[in-house]
Every structure is written in C-alpha cells, then in structure tokens.
Write a structure and sequence with these properties.
Blueprint (H helix, E strand, L loop, with lengths): L1 H38 L3 H25 L4 E5 L10 E4 L6 H8 L3 E5 L10 H7 L2 E2 L4 H12 L3 E4 L17 H9 L3 E9 L18 E6 L5 H4 L6 H24 L1
Parallel strand pairs: 1-7, 2-5, 2-6, 3-4, 3-5
Antiparallel strand pairs: 6-7
Length: about 260
C-alpha cells in the first residue's frame, strides 16, 4: 500500500514538475528575455546573461524535482566543469540529461534539435542563448568551434538522441569532428540512472517502482591523440575517435548494468 501511494505521488509530482518547466519557459520567453533585449544592446552580452539565467532556472528545476521526491542525484567531480572552453560529451539515458549538464556548467552552449527552436515552451531559451541547432549541416561544426574559442563550454550528446533501451550505442561524428578540426580535448561525462526513467519512448507518467537515482560522473579530459592515432588525416581521425567514444560509453553503460 505504501509503495502504491508513493508511486501515485511521484506521478503527480512529475506532472507538476514538467508543468512548472513549461510555464517557466514561457515566462522566460515572454517576460525575462524581452526585458534583457531592451537592457543589453550587445548580442554577445545578451547571450551570456541569458545562458546564466537558463543555468539557474535549470538548477531550480532540479531542486524542485528532488524536493518533491521525483529523483535523487549525485554529482562526482563537479569542479571539472568549472572551467571554460570545454567540449563536454555525454551519454544520454534520459530526457533531463541536458538539464543536469547545463545546470552544472557555466556559460554552457548546446547542440539542440531544431524542433526545440520551434516549440513554444523551449524556443525562447534556445533562441535567446544562441544554442546551436543540429540542422545547420556542415556549418554546425564551425558554429561549435567558434563557440568554444569564444570561451563557452559546449555540451553535446554524440548519439544525437536518447540511448535506446536495447541494442548498441550508435554515435554521430559531430563531436569527433569538432574535437579534430578544432584541436580540443574531450571532457567525458558518464550519466547513470537507476532504475531507468524518462528514456527514449517512455511516457513521463510511467514512473519506475522506486525513486530513480542519477549519478553524474565527470571524467578527466581526454586528448584526441589518446583516442585517435597521431598522423592520421582528419577524416580517419574523426572515424577512429568516434569509434573510441562509442567503445568508451558502451563499456561504461555495460558496467552500470553489471
């Protein structure tokens, strides 16, 4: 009986949290970001402040989810994200992974699905912060490199979508292209969620039997030369780096499930 009541509460609380997220996104779009547009004439300054606002809004959202008993979470080595110019690559087990990483990272830039720039609840933050949309083709890599060289931290999920429940991880080559062409080290982040929730294909109201616990594990930087042999041309280096990333995250995911 207690378990059933707890689960029913978490369904209601999850709905409350996501409703708050949607309302918050609309308020940012309608009230906060237009005000910043009036106060800050410089686009660069405006995007920097908007990134700061979104970071703190995401931190409040996570605190709300924890306070009402929807999730628990722990962050390992958060100090590694308190730097600038980081190319942050992570696995993507759940819907809220990007919220964790943006909340933990100063001046975070993101590669986001183009649909988020059209969604009424998310397009305000996406456009105001200047996040990179993934529909810009080859120009996306150039935009990401420019963002990193400007001192932003770039958050990217090499899978391009949430990790499927079954089957191998399939990584896109965008992250490796950015690292090779821009000469950036990678900062891997392993995200664990047990029991799984908000995975690809899951409905928000299908909460697991017990409260999920997230562990956000920030690993040490990895240079391109460690995961791709020196002396390769760019195309081969990108292919080898993508394969190394795939093996790394596949190994870590298997270790989580062991």
């Amino acid at each position: 009986m207690v378990e059933r009541l707890d689960r029913a509460w978490r369904v209601c609380a999850t709905g409350l949290c996501f409703s708050s997220f949607g309302v918050g996104g609309l308020l940012l779009r309608v009230l906060v970001f237009p005000l910043l547009t009036l106060l800050l004439w410089s686009p660069a300054s405006r995007q920097r402040v908007c990134k700061h606002v979104v970071r703190h809004a995401f931190r409040l959202f996570l605190l709300l989810m924890r306070a009402v008993g929807v999730i628990r979470y722990e962050v390992l080595h958060p100090e590694r994200l308190r730097r600038s110019g980081l190319l942050i690559v992570a696995n993507h087990p759940s819907l809220i992974d990007v919220i964790f990483l943006v909340a933990l990272t100063r001046q975070a830039d993101c590669v986001v699905k183009s649909g988020l720039a059209r969604n009424p609840f998310t397009r305000g933050p996406v456009r105001a912060t200047g996040y990179v949309c993934n529909d810009s083709g080859a120009g996306m890599v150039d935009d990401c490199i420019a963002s990193l060289r400007a001192g932003n931290n770039l958050v990217i999920f090499p899978e391009g979508t949430r990790t499927p429940a079954r089957g191998p991880l399939r990584l896109q080559r965008g992250a490796a292209n950015i690292a090779v062409r821009g000469g950036f080290a990678l900062t891997p982040v392993v995200i664990r969620c047990e029991p799984p929730t908000l995975a690809k294909g899951d409905k928000w109201y299908r909460v697991p039997a017990r409260r999920p616990r997230y562990v956000i594990d920030v690993r040490e930087d990895v240079g391109v030369e460690r995961w791709a042999r020196p002396g390769l041309d760019d195309a081969l280096a990108v292919r080898q780096l993508t394969q190394s990333l795939s093996e790394f995250f596949s190994r870590e995911v298997r270790r989580e499930g062991a």
